[in-house]
TrEMBL record:
Signal peptide: none annotated. This is Bifunctional protein FolD. GO terms for cellular component: cytosol. It catalyses: (6R)-5,10-methenyltetrahydrofolate + H2O = (6R)-10-formyltetrahydrofolate + H(+); (6R)-5,10-methylene-5,6,7,8-tetrahydrofolate + NADP(+) = (6R)-5,10-methenyltetrahydrofolate + NADPH. It comes from Pseudomonas umsongensis. The gene is folD. NADP(+) binds at G166, R167, S168, I232.
Length: 298
């Protein structure tokens, strides 16, 4: 068996961001400045870090970023009012609502309030439905980043058997839809799946997104499988706090053809594809505007 390959998410994200920067420059040449509005409700420390990183990446690629911070006591109606204003602002191309939200805010209503064309997280039901139908829509960033890593690692994905472990709305379900669109045969495993290890051992590709540290070890994996580990779990290891994935990396490494490390694998791809989605949204909105102008003239 060949030496296992580490899938470098940082390097892949850098390549994506170079292309995004080029797209931004082309749009600016047409007097279009891509803009992303980020909404942070409350004071969750992890969310503040995520938002800061997203804004830094936006600045690096030339995307204008606007941060809206709302208090922990913000009501659903107050949040919906802000979203409505951002929806109506033609200079804003993407709206990102940082999750989680405080308990009193209706998350579903808030996500559904963002117009699908500005929903750069891909969480609106119209984008979710479009993805399941195989249409080109704004897809969730983490699954899109995982698919990019797979295409860069495996080349043509057609006919490969992919197992997705986890069925969340944010990763598992959209990941399965993207893999189906890429002509993979897809199995989704979850807490009610009988003998998940045996099912997983049949897979050419494994995407672990279940949120349980080191759940998947070598006994789950077919020799030569490609593994994408979406999990980010903080554990106490001999008195030291560190991040690990859903895959037991040391156990899996001798068994696989390629694997993402944690950290440094999928994480950087999420922000890179948020930037890519923002540029895609700007292009989609410009195309819709041009069509509307042409229709009014005719």
């Amino acid at each position: 068996m060949n030496t296992p390959r580490l899938i470098d998410g940082k390097a892949a994200a850098a390549r994506v961001l170079i292309e995004v920067r080029k797209d931004v420059e082309r749009l600016r040449a047409q007097d279009i400045q891509p803009a992303l509005a980020v909404i942070l409700v409350g004071s969750d420390p992890a969310s503040q870090v995520y938002v800061r990183n997203k804004i830094l990446r936006a600045e690096e690629v030339g995307i204008r970023s606007l941060e809206h911070r709302l208090g922990t006591d913000t009501s659903t109606e107050q949040l919906l009012d802000l979203i409505a204003r951002l929806n109506a602002d033609g200079s804003i191309h993407g709206i990102l609502l940082q999750l989680p939200l405080p308990a009193q805010v209706d998350e579903l209503r808030a996500l559904q309030a963002i117009v699908p064309g500005k929903d750069v997280d891909g969480f609106h039901s119209e984008n979710v439905g479009g993805l399941s139908q195989g249409r080109t829509v704004l897809a969730p960033c983490t699954p899109s980043g995982c698919l990019y890593l797979l295409e860069q690692t495996c080349g043509d994905l057609r006919g490969k058997h992919a197992v997705v472990i986890g069925r969340s709305n944010i990763v598992g379900k959209p990941m399965a839809a993207l893999l189906l669109k890429a002509d993979c045969s897809v199995t989704v495993l979850h807490s009610r799946s009988p003998d998940p290890q045996a099912l997983c051992r049949q897979a050419d590709i494994v995407i672990a997104a279940v949120g349980r540290p080191r759940l998947i070890d070598a006994s789950w994996l077919k020799p030569g499988a490609v593994v994408i580990d979406v999990g980010i779990n903080r554990i106490d290891d001999a008195g030291r706090s560190r991040l690990v994935g859903d895959v037991d990396f040391d156990s899996a490494l001798p068994q696989v053809a390629a694997i993402t490390p944690v950290p440094g694998g999928v994480g950087p791809m999420t922000i890179a594809f948020l930037m890519k989605n923002t540029v895609t949204a700007a292009l989609m909105q410009q195309h819709s505007l041009s069509e509307a102008v042409c229709h009014s003239i005719s």
